[in-house]
Amino acid sequence: xxxxxIAMLAAIACASYTSSMTASGNDSIELVSHCAAxxxxxxxxxxxxxxxxCDPCGDACDSGFGDAGCCDAGCDGGCDSACGCGLGGGLxxxxxxxxxxxxxxxxxxxxxxxxxxWVQMGYHDRALPIFxxxxxxxxxxxxxxxxxxxxxxxxxxxxxxxxxxxxxxxxQNTQAFGTGNRGWDNDWDNGGANxxxxxxxxxxxxxxxxxxxxxxxxxxxxxxYEVVAAPGNFxxxxxxxxxxxxxxxxxxxxATYNVNDNxxxxxxxxxxxxxxxxxxGDSFLGGLSVAMSDDLTLTYATTFGRIGxxxxxxxxxxxxxxxxxxxxxxxxxxxxxxxxxxxxxTSAGATVRETFGINQYLIYTLSDCWAAGGRFEYYNNxxxxxxxxxxxxxxxxxxxLNYKPHSNVVVRPEIRWDWDDDQVxxxxxxxxxxxxxxxxxxxx
Length: 444
Description:
The chain is built from five helices and 18 strands. By secondary structure, the chain is mainly beta. A 16-stranded antiparallel barrel has the order 2-3-4-6-7-8-9-10-11-12-13-14-15-16-17-18. A hairpin with a 7-residue loop joins strand 3 and strand 4 (157-168). The termini are far apart. Mean pLDDT is 81; it is low at 1-90.
C-alpha cells in the first residue's frame, strides 16, 4: 500500500513538473515529457527528479540543465558544456564551452618508445633576475624534444631510458653550468650571457624490477616543486628559491623504491650539482614521499656533501633540503607549501651560501580549460647576490591564469610584484617592481 502511494505521488509530481515546463514555453518541453514517458514516472529514476539531465533518450545533455556525473556517457565522454565539463554551473558556466578532446601527439608510441616535446614562447615587460631576463621581446624560451622508453615492471624486469634536448633562452639555465665552461653542453651558446643556447638536460638509462628502479646518467633533480620544463609549472615566471637554492640536474645514480602504495623512497650518488659527465663533487641525493591521506602528500628531498665549485673557484660543500606539502582542499582547490633550506661552506669552513625560503601556491581549477592561481614567496639569502655576510630578504607575489583553448595549447598570463628593500637582486625598478608576462606552450 505504501509503495503504491509513493508511485502515485511520484507520477503526480512528474506530471506537474512536466506541465509547468510546458506552460513556461521552455525549449525543453518535449525533452521532459519524452523523458517522463521513457523513464516511467512511477519509479525514482532519472527524469522524474528535479535534475532531469540524464535520460535514456541521450538528448538530455543538450538541454543545458543536466547532471555532469550521469551525462558523461551520453555526451561524448562528458565533453559537452552542458554536462559540466568542469564546474558545470555557476562560475564555470560563465566561461563558455570547454571541450578539449584528446591531446594530439606528433610521434606517438612505438614498441614502448614515445617521443614528443613542446614550444614555449613568451613576453614580459620587465627583466627578472631569474629565467625571464630579456624584457620587451617576444622570446623563444624552450623548443624541446624528448624520446623516452618508460619502464614497466608490472611483469618483472624492464629497461628503458630518456634523452631531452632544448633550444632557447632557457637552455643556459639547464646546461651543466655547475662546472663552468667544462660542462659537456655549457658552451653551446649564442647571443651572449642572456642569449640563446642548446642543452641536453637529461640523458639516462633506467632499469627496474618490481617496485625498484634505478636511473644512471644525467637527469633532473627530485628537489623542490617547480621544474625547468615549462609544462610542469603553473606560472610563467619562477621562484627565487628554485633558481638560486636548488640544483636543476645531477649526474650519477638514483634509485627509486615504492615501499607501498603510499610511500616512495629515493636514494643515490651524484657528481654534485648541475654537472655533466665530469667531476663536480660527491654528494648524496635522496628523500621520501608519503601520501598521508587522499588529500595530503608530503615530500622531503635532500642533497648533501661536496656539491661543486663556489663562485671563487673553491670547493663548496654542505647541506640542503626541500619539504613540499601538496594539499587538496576541495575538488577544485589545491594548496602547496614549500620550505627550502641551504647551508654551504668552503673546505676551510667559511660560509658560501645560506638561504631559507617559503613558497606558497593556491590553485583553483575553474574548468578543464581555465584555472587561476597565486604564489607568494619569502626568500632570505646570504651569499647569493653579494659577498657572504650580506643577509637580505626578498618577497614576490604572482597572480596568474592558465587557459587551454585546446588540449595541446596552454596560455599563461600573469602579474608579478617583487619587493627587494636591500636592492640586491637587480630589479629594473630598484627596490620594488611590477612585471606583466604572458607565454604560450604548444605541446606535440
